[in-house]
Design goal:
Structural class of chain B: mainly alpha
Number of strands of chain A: 2
Bound molecules: protoporphyrin IX containing FE, fe (ii) ion
Strand content of chain A: under 5%
Radius of gyration of chain A: 21 Å
CATH class of the domain at 240-456 in chain B: Mainly Alpha
Distance between the termini of chain A: 57 Å
Largest interface: A-B, 65 and 73 residues
Shape of chain A: elongated
CATH architecture of the domain at 36-125 in chain A: Orthogonal Bundle
Oligomer: heterodimer
Number of strands of chain B: 0
Strand order of the largest sheet of chain A: 1-2
Chain lengths: ~140, ~450
């Protein structure tokens, strides 16, 4: 059986795909201009990924919702004054073994990996997210 | 069964259902960890990984089974290469088992090391946690599957249903390439991760779902012309709204501000295809006239669009506007939507298909035997009601979370807020137990009761 196929939707969809491609090209071009990545930050991202931190935490709101948002943890814990030391001490102190409290594993990161991870979290805290998250608690 | 090669669908369906049960079991484990009970041997992250990864995997098994069943019939043609379909089944199953065991038995970082993640880092991103070589294997399976389906259709009759299924399958395979793209700029990495996730869930998978639904409705009513007319409208609306709807994932990840406008304007209309699906089934299926006797299938097929409209459409709409998403992003609200949307759209369509095809694959002459129909309908209600309630409890938790963590001057720390929502998490876990009971009844019915009473 024959059905009459109007080409209008195909035309609109093509327009929309073109618009998506245009915006994507623009986004892909402007982003690296403001990112200033260093080898240490890139390594930090890999440390983050290889320990599956998003299995519990969110980063810029994406991940699991079991543990706190970490895109702003560097600032939340005092930035260059405290953030570095806090994050290091925190990772080394896990797990807390406090009964009835959610536990985070001990990852046994080397000093190098810790510094890279902190550089990555610092870099992440500087991303322009239009003041998201709404509160410093994430 | 009209074509013997349709039988390759059977192992796919059985595996899908078995993995479904395992997936839900791991859901119960993380649900328990949410109510502050630490259990030994398994961390939250590991169990969550298995819960979400198995979901994607078993739905793919279900889609593959559905395609291998539908395509020969629609193309009036034996499957191009049924040996390949069987081979791919074993490869896919092996990949699934190896990956799951790897997650369970090894620390994630060790799994990453021994699979060479440092040479081609793609791991550690939500839903894309599989080792790079496993992703390659998965890609190979998808390619072989697409090839087999494409060749069958090429040699056979072309209908709107099988062509749409083909577009959905080939599209999913192409989009999967983005699993391998993980730029070192976190913002870009997030940007392109959604090209896979959004374009699967709200794009190519949605097309597959629409094709399966259309096929089932056609089987119930026997009227192809009217099904195709509706299908055409639904697909057109899906494509025009979903593509730029991707912007609803780009509000707060560090990309330019115009995405807030693009995402908001287009994704608002993403509810329309689901609305049309509801109109479609209720206009087309007139059950006082239809001859079809499998009541369970009718129930699944008519409920899927309604539930998808609620879970994907309405719950999606509620947090898709940028100003709302500013508060809801990254809270339990997202989880509530993800649960109901996945269940209502994809779990339900696969179960509809299984419900329709399995009795035929097993050669049952009579498919509406009393006991087995009653049990399946009971399982349907247990699962559907408990999942809706679970989504409700999680959404309430989300609203509480937004209120104390984000909408007040002096916000409490994350963990304290989570403790205060523990009642909701308990209710959710109870919902999960009821859901699991539904799954068990469904499986018992399929593998025991239907076998015994299927043929009169
Ligand atoms: C077709 C079925 C759909 C499925 C299976 C689905 C599933 C999902 C999943 C898995 C996520 C991510 C959850 C996470 O990261 O933990 C998500 C996020 C989202 N979905 Fe859907 N979805 C569907 C349809 C829709 C529709 C139609 C809309 C809008 C009208 C929508 C709006 C959203 C939004 C705004 C987010 C981002 C939430 C956030 O992180 O702030 N979804 N969805
Ligand atoms: Fe989306």
């Amino acid at each position: 059986m024959k059905i009459k196929i109007s080409t209008k939707p195909i035309y609109y969809s093509s327009l929309i795909v073109l618009l998506l491609l245009g915006l994507t090209i623009h986004t892909t071009i402007v982003l690296p201009q403001r990112d200033h990545l260093t080898p240490q930050i890139i390594k930090g991202k890999m440390v983050w990924e290889e320990h599956n931190c998003i299995g519990c935490h969110t980063l810029l709101g994406e991940g699991a919702y079991f543990a706190p948002e970490l895109s702003n943890v560097y600032e939340r814990r005092g930035g260059s004054q405290g953030g570095i030391y806090f994050i290091k001490a925190w990772l080394k102190a896990m797990p807390t073994n406090i009964p009835g409290r959610r536990q985070m594993p001990q990852f046994n990161l080397t000093e190098d990996e810790l510094n890279a991870l902190i550089a990555f979290l610092k870099w992440t805290s500087e991303i322009n997210t239009f003041s998201w998250p709404p509160s410093e608690k994430g | 069964m009209l074509y013997p090669s349709q039988a390759v669908a059977k192992p796919y369906f059985i595996t899908a259902i078995a993995l479904f049960a395992v997936q839900v079991l791991f859901g119960l484990i993380i649900g328990i960890q949410y109510v502050m009970i630490n259990i030994p041997f398994i961390t939250f992250a590991t169990a969550k990984l298995i819960h979400t990864n198995l979901l994607i995997i078993w739905l793919l098994f279900g889609f593959m089974g559905a395609a291998y069943y539908i395509i020969p019939e629609e193309s009036e043609q034996e499957l191009y290469n049924s040996k390949l379909a069987v081979l791919l089944f074993w490869v896919f199953l092996a990949l699934t088992i190896i990956t799951t065991l790897g997650y369970l038995l090894l620390p994630y970082a060790t799994f990453a090391k021994i699979t060479g993640n440092q040479f081609f880092p793609t791991m550690g991103r939500e839903y894309l946690e599989q080792p790079t070589i496993i992703k390659l294997g998965l890609f190979a399976v998808l390619c072989g599957f697409s090839y087999n389906i494409a060749m069958t259709i090429l040699h056979g009759r072309k209908t709107m249903i099988n062509l749409l299924l083909l577009v959905g399958i080939v599209g999913s395979t192409i989009v999967f390439v983005f699993a391998f793209y993980n730029p070192s700029n976190l913002v870009l990495a997030k940007y392109y991760r959604w090209w896979l996730l959004h374009f699967w869930l709200e794009g190519t998978w949605e097309l597959i779902m629409e094709a399966i639904l259309a096929y089932i409705i056609f089987k119930i009513t026997g009227d192809r012309a009217i099904v195709e007319k509706w299908l055409y409208i639904i697909v057109a609306v899906t494509l025009t709204t979903s593509v730029l709807g991707i912007g609803h994932h780009y509000y707060w990840i560090g990309v330019p501000e115009y995405w807030q406008w693009v995402g908001t304007i287009f994704s608002v209309f993403e509810l329309l295809p689901f609305f049309f699906m509801v109109l479609f089934v209720f206009n087309v299926v007139n059950c006082t006239k239809c001859q079809y006797s499998n009541n369970a299938v009718k129930l699944w097929a008519l409920s899927t669009p309604i539930m998808a409209f609620l879970g994907a459409g309405v719950l999606g709409f509620l947090h898709t506007l940028a100003p709302v998403n500013y508060y809801s992003h990254g809270t339990q609200i997202t989880s509530a939507h993800a649960h109901l949307a996945f269940y209502s759209t994809y779990v339900m369509i696969v179960l509809t298909m299984v419900s329709y095809a399995m009795p035929i694959l097993r050669d049952h002459k009579v498919i509406n035997h009393g006991i087995s129909q009653k049990l399946e309908i009971l399982a349907f209600w247990l699962m559907t009601v408990s999942m809706s309630l679970m989504a409700l409890f999680i959404a309430i938790a989300g609203i509480m979370q937004i209120y104390v963590q984000r909408a007040t001057e002096i916000a409490l720390p994350f963990i304290e807020i989570q403790n205060s929502m523990v009642v909701m998490f308990w209710l959710r876990e109870i919902g999960g137990v009821v859901f699991f009971i539904g799954v068990i009844i469904y499986i018992t019915n399929f593998f025991m009761v239907k076998k015994k009473y299927g043929t009169r």
